[in-house]
Design a protein that fits this description.
Blueprint: E1 4-5, H1 8-16, H2 19-28, E2 34-40, H3 44-60, E3 63-69, H4 75-87, E4 93-96, H5 106-112, H6 124-132, H7 140-152, E5 160-164, H8 171-180, E6 184-188, H9 195-199, E7 204-207, E8 225-228, E9 232-233, E10 239-240, H10 245-248, E11 254-255, H11 262-285
Helix pairs in contact: 1-11, 2-11, 3-11, 7-8, 7-11
The chain binds guanine.
Guanine (GUN) binds near residues 95 and 140.
Length: about 290
């Protein structure tokens, strides 16, 4: 079997088709959607992600403000800036690129963002709302993954879903969304005994552990749907996912490539959340 390739660029383009119209409609009402992106330090991957987010905003008619700090910045300066952005009526979404340098208390930084502007969905209040089943903002990467299932007509009800990785950014919210879609969910992590035992049972396998080509064909059930959230840089500079794509695509029924799979969808859902935040605000303000 050769897997259906779930094309993130194509789906992103399809979903973004009406973003410009929505952004322009808000702009015409004097409320151009605005996203503030805060980047602390010089991490190369984070710089690329932030640049991609800023470029995507420009293409979709959103205003973005990139705010950078050196790695050794005093955390209070960042918190003060977040407080200003919370009060700024031209900013509808605030994103702090993670990971932050070690001297930061990341939870405290995320808690400083107004939950109404928390387009990443990482504020404890929004995490709680997601857990209770009435999410205000769904974290962008798992949200994008759910869009693949919807687009390809992949049924989740009653399926065995296995999530590799338990991060706050991907693994935990992903598990929550799959559970809400009536899948039976197993979350595996670095301390899981016999990981392959779990992955081989998976109808839906989500790899989000950050290890290049970790998931090999012998770990995958024939016909499984495989979603690769990993973005790893190989010594030769090329990008690759957490899944051994050439081998696994021979036995899976559907699979996302890297690059061109989950990555473009993450940014698309960030735009969607920012538009949503701006539309809600206009709705509130009348
Ligand atoms: N770092 C890796 N992924 C993400 C994300 O989705 N949002 C933020 N803020 N930081 C990240």
């Amino acid at each position: 079997m050769t897997a259906l390739i779930l094309d993130g660029n194509a789906l992103a383009q399809k979903l973004r088709a009406d973003f410009k119209t929505r952004a322009d409609a808000l702009t015409a009402r004097g409320a151009q959607p605005g996203l503030a992106v805060i980047l602390v330090g010089e991490d190369a991957a984070s710089q690329v992600y932030v640049r991609n987010k800023v470029n995507a905003c420009a293409q979709a008619g959103l205003r973005s403000e990139k705010i950078t700090y050196p790695a050794d910045v005093e955390p209070q300066r960042v918190l003060t800036r977040i407080a200003e952005l919370n009060a700024d009526p031209t900013i509808h979404g605030i994103l702090v690129q993670l990971p932050l340098p070690r001297h930061f208390d990341s939870d405290a930084v995320l808690a400083a963002i107004s939950p109404d502007k928390d387009v990443d969905g990482f504020h404890a209040e929004n995490v709680g709302a997601l857990m209770q089943g009435h999410a205000r903002f769904i974290p962008c990467t798992p949200y994008g993954v759910m869009k693949f299932f919807g687009e390809a007509g992949i049924e989740l009800k009653g399926k065995e879903a296995v999530v590799l990785g338990r991060s706050n950014i991907v693994g935990k919210p992903m598990a929550m969304l799959l559970m809400q879609a009536n899948a039976t969910v197993t979350v595996c992590h670095s301390q899981t005994r016999d990981l392959a035992f779990h992955t081989r049972r998976a109808d839906i396998l989500i790899a989000a552990l950050g290890k290049a080509r970790f998931v090999t064909a012998d770990m995958v059930k024939p016909g499984a749907v495989v979603i690769d959230v990993g973005i790893n840089r190989l010594p030769d500079g090329k990008l690759c996912g957490d899944v051994d794509f050439p081998a696994v695509s021979q036995i899976a029924s559907a699979i996302t490539p890297v690059p061109g799979g989950v990555g473009p969808m993450t940014i698309t859902m960030l735009l969607a959340n920012t538009l949503e935040a701006a539309e809600r605000k206009v709705g509130r303000d009348g």
